[in-house]
Design brief:
heterodimer; A: mainly alpha; 68% helix; 0% strand; B: 130 residues; alpha+beta; Alpha-Beta Plaits; 4-stranded antiparallel β-sheet; 3 helices; 27% helix; YCII (chain B); Dimeric_a/b-barrel (chain B); YCII-related domain-containing protein (chain B); DUF6596 (chain A); WH-like_DNA-bd_sf (chain A)
Chain lengths: 404, 130
């Protein structure tokens, strides 16, 4: 068996093994450590002895033994108590089956409210996604040491918060699901906003985020916002190949070669939306997906149904208002109605201290002034936007708008 | 969001931590120095424990630097310091934090008398196509 076979089995089984251990022993830090030991044992033994008949049971047994050994050798009383379940010197006797609720429990544990967003992201990729620390740190362009610290800290916080591997109450459930969706969306945007697109080093975060939301969708097939988030990601990722040129620079939506969009993704995203939208409550992910679908189904930029997009942004403003939504709404209003109306929408944003240092406010205003024929005023706004952005490709794009 | 925190200073003699070689810092009452040191240690521990610290280095004496300027199609080498100004780049820290507010909070803790702390955003290779 090759290294990549081993990696495939590992990624498929790791979350299941972790869930089985957590169900019995509870503490994420201890269970992850035991899982790591089991992985090392598999790496040395499987290539020699061949793949076990039931790799999952094999991994669980080895990991559970490590937990038992650890509990026996521990002298700290607190730790011994924590590992109380493991003191029982029997081989793992918990259920091997993995049900959809295990996926949810694992997600909820990794996205526990006591954790910061970056910790939730790191933990979800590690524990639900089964990625290695090296893969996660490479994807986020941070040293492996930093990522290890993030994960260690996150597990300590979970321990201190008394977080358990169980389902939240019905009361808490909506907030907990929406935290998981936010985390998946954050992973997606981190990957999508990278111009290196398909060649993102080692793993592709957009694919990873879609994989995670698919798991969530399998566990909660009737959840409209989960379907909406999956549709949004599929419809957005469909544009990937068309959004950068050979030099790796950004191609704005207006100039993309739409024949290069992934139409299988678009079909899947639209189908998901059509099944979801008529069901009642419409959340922000469904609305954003609906907007992405209008773009996706428009054969050319000129044919874009801006009136519909503008109406969808109206609804989005009511459901989930934010400066970013206002900026996108303004662009749609400029196309559907007039640039003057759109410029007026930006006025309140200038008074927001957080937005006054944000490059997109100036980039959008510049675009609207250009549309309105006021090229001189647009130049000043492009200059401000270029100065404020931290994105290299965006800075090159904005600089290209400046007539020297 | 990634930032670099640049420490501009002029310790005499050049040395690290810079505060040990700055008159203005040494003139502070002992309890104030202890408090500043404690706060600095605390923020470093915090950055490290949170997984916010990407790295950092202390730089050598700027007068020992070598400078390469372009002259008649060739590099012309001379000795440092590069800058005519009172302070020189003495060291840097790379951080990865959640927000500009957190970056500012951290940078403020690196500040001390007779030094300038500069917080700069790192450019990243991505962007939005909207």
């Amino acid at each position: 068996m090759t290294d990549s076979d081993l990696a495939d089995v590992w990624r498929r089984e790791a979350p299941h093994v972790l869930a089985a251990l957590l169900r019995k022993y509870g503490d994420l830090g201890d269970c992850e450590e035991a899982l790591q030991d089991a992985a090392e044992a598999a790496t040395t033994q499987w290539p020699h002895n061949g793949l076990p008949d039931n790799p999952r049971a094999w991994l669980i047994t080895v990991a559970a033994r490590r937990l038992i050994d650890q509990a026996r050798s521990e002298t700290s009383r607190v730790r011994r108590e924590r590992l109380d379940a493991a003191r029982n010197p029997q081989v793992f006797d918990g259920p091997l089956a993995y049900d959809r609720d295990d996926t949810l429990r694992l997600f909820f544990l990794c996205c526990h409210p006591a954790l910061t967003r970056p910790s939730q992201v790191a933990l979800s990729l590690r524990s639900v996604g089964g990625l290695s620390v090296e893969q996660i740190s490479a994807a986020y362009l941070v040293p492996a040491r930093t990522m290890t610290q993030r994960l260690t800290r996150a597990r300590t916080v979970l321990r201190q918060a008394g977080a358990r591997f169980d389902m939240p109450s019905d009361n808490d459930l909506p907030d907990r699901v929406s935290a998981v969706l936010d985390v998946c969306h954050l992973i997606f945007t981190e990957g999508y906003a990278r111009t290196s697109g398909e060649q993102l080093q080692d793993i592709q975060l957009t694919t990873e985020a879609i994989r995670l939301v698919r798991q969530l969708h399998d566990a909660l097939p009737e959840h409209a916002e989960v379907s909406g988030a999956l549709a949004l990601m599929l419809l957005t990722q469909a544009r990937s190949a068309a959004r950068t040129n050979a030099a790796g620079d950004l191609i704005p939506l207006a100039d993309q070669d739409r024949t290069r969009w992934r139409h299988d993704r678009i079909t899947e995203g639209v189908a998901l939306l059509e099944k979801t939208l008529p069901r009642g409550h419409v959340g922000r992910f469904q609305l954003q997906a609906a907007i992405a679908a209008v773009h996706a189904e428009s054969v050319t930029y000129e044919e874009t149904d801006w009136l519909q997009i503008s109406l969808l942004y109206d609804m989005l403003t009511r459901v989930a208002p934010s400066p970013a939504v206002t900026l996108n709404h303004a662009v749609a209003v400029a196309m559907a109605h007039s640039p003057e109306a759109a410029l007026a929408m930006l006025k309140p944003l200038s008074d927001d201290p957080a937005m006054s240092r944000h490059h997109r406010l100036y980039a959008v205003r510049a675009h609207l002034l250009d549309l309105n024929g006021d090229h001189e005023a647009a130049q000043e706004q492009y200059r401000l936007a270029a100065r404020l952005t931290s994105s290299g490709p965006e800075q090159r794009y904005l600089n290209s708008k400046l007539s020297s | 969001m990634k930032y670099v925190i640049l420490i501009h200073s002029n310790p005499q003699p050049w040395g690290h931590p810079t505060s040990d070689y700055l008159d203005a810092h040494k003139a502070l009452p002992a309890d104030v120095r202890a408090r500043l040191q404690g706060e600095f240690n605390q923020v470093m521990t915090e950055l490290s424990a949170n997984g916010e610290l990407l790295g950092g280095e202390a730089l050598g004496d700027p007068t020992a630097a070598r400078l390469y300027r372009w002259r008649d199609g060739d590099p012309l080498v001379s000795d440092g310091p590069y800058s005519e100004s009172k302070e020189h780049l003495a060291g840097f820290f790379l951080i990865d934090v959640d927000s500009q507010a957190r970056a500012e909070q951290v940078a403020a803790r690196f500040s001390g008398p007779d030094e300038t702390v500069e917080l700069r955003l790192l450019m990243w290779p991505g962007g939005d196509d909207q």
